[in-house]
Amino acid sequence: MPDLSHGDEIENENDSAVNALRSAVMRLGRRLKHQRVDESLSPTEMSVLGTLARCGSATPGELARKEHVQPPSMTRIVALLEAKGLVRLEPHPDDRRQKVVSQTEEAEAMLEESRRKRNVWLASLAEGLDEDEWAKLRAAAPVLEKLAHL
């Protein structure tokens, strides 16, 4: 009969790693959310602006899918962002029944300032890492980025 204990050990190590990752990402995410530039925007509104910055213009339906919210919710979010001057709605080039959402220059500048503030804060935390920990962080960053977009 084959010895399955080695496989069980790896599975337990993986479960432990997933648990530690979840906990650390959640704590770090909560702390990063407090480093906001514009307190008048909700985390969801900031996320939509970030998606537009990363992926480019999109219809409200496409944004709803990317943000994992219902289309009526995205319609309300887009309306709020438009009222704040952070997005503009334009006719869809192929389907006049739809609109395309784009970020404004004001949104782009705000996102840049938000990234800068969060990067400064995170860099100050990372000053306490030794070179081995920095190497591990550099190696883990692409894997975390991949997980964030799966």
What's the short story on this structure?
The chain has 6 helices and 2 strands, in the order H-H-H-H-E-E-H-H. The chain is mainly alpha-helical.
Label this structure with key terms.
single chain; 150 residues; mainly alpha; 6 helices; 2 strands
Task: Note down, in words, how this protein is organized.
α3 (60-67) crosses α4 (71-83). The longest helix is centred in the first third of the chain and has 29 residues, at 5-33. A two-stranded antiparallel sheet has the order 1-2. The chain has six helices and two strands; from the N terminus they run ααααββαα. It starts with a helix and ends with a helix. A hairpin with a 7-residue loop joins β1 (87-91) and β2. 69% of the residues lie in helices and 7% in strands. With 150 residues, the chain is mainly alpha-helical.
Radius of gyration: 20 Å
- Detail the poorly predicted runs: none
Q: Give the overall pLDDT as a whole number.
A: 89
Strand order in space, largest sheet: 1-2
Percent strand equals: 5-15%
Tell me the number of helical segments per DSSP (H or I, 4 or more residues long). 6
Q: Measure the end-to-end span.
A: 38 Å
What global shape is seen? globular
Class based on secondary structure composition and strand pairing: mainly alpha
Number of strands: 2
SSE pattern:
HHHHEEHH
Query: Largest sheet, described in full?
Result: 2 strands, antiparallel
